[in-house]
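2024-03-11 09:14:02 DEBUG pipeline.ingest accepted 1 chain
2024-03-11 09:14:02 DEBUG pipeline.ingest length=225
2024-03-11 09:14:03 DEBUG pipeline.predict start
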Amino acid sequence: MEHIFPWDFSVIPAKFLFFRDAALLTLEITTLGILTGLVLGLIAALGKISRNKVAQGVSSAYIFLIRGTPLLLQLFIIYYGLTTVVTIPPFPSAIIALGVHNGAYIAEIFRGSIQSIHYGQMEAARSLGMPRRKAMRRIILPQAFKRAVPSLGNQFIIALKDSSLASTIAVPELLLKGRQLGSSTFMYMEMLIIVAIWYLIMTSVLTIGVHRLEKRLRVSDRDQT
């Protein structure tokens, strides 16, 4: 009896571009989520290293709570749990959840980068009469951002893959598109492979971009010295 292969991979090139809009939406969710996370992360990092006990407590609680619970749960709380107070549509819910989740991890990245800058630089700035906030903004943070680039790049890639959870609340990103086409064509494996290829392309481009940015920053540091 002739063996029939269960999958038809010839449809992959034909259906590949059907996922373009979903891929762009995935990138949009990821980018907006990361930008939100950068803002929240920087605020939380500065709060955690602040001398203000209240700021320290709030920042530490935020980081502990978010890092200790799964992103899917946080997404459901925002989309389903808050409906008695406010109804948030799926797309902004995904961005908020991704931003809040990544903000906790980015806060630790920033905190580590800031604390890796030698304390003598802050003392030197203060001895010249520069206020602490100005010294932090003009001297410490620019160096900390440079040191944080590799970790931030990795976090961006993680966020890109985590954005697939938005499919659970009907955001038409890559994974939901793959499931819908798989259901309508009965070609689940083929559609999911296309989704995987799109993710591999996007993560590869991001990885290359981060590596090039790292090289540029290293070159600029050598030029300054």
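2024-03-11 09:14:41 DEBUG pipeline.report The chain has a mean pLDDT of 91.
2024-03-11 09:14:41 DEBUG pipeline.predict end
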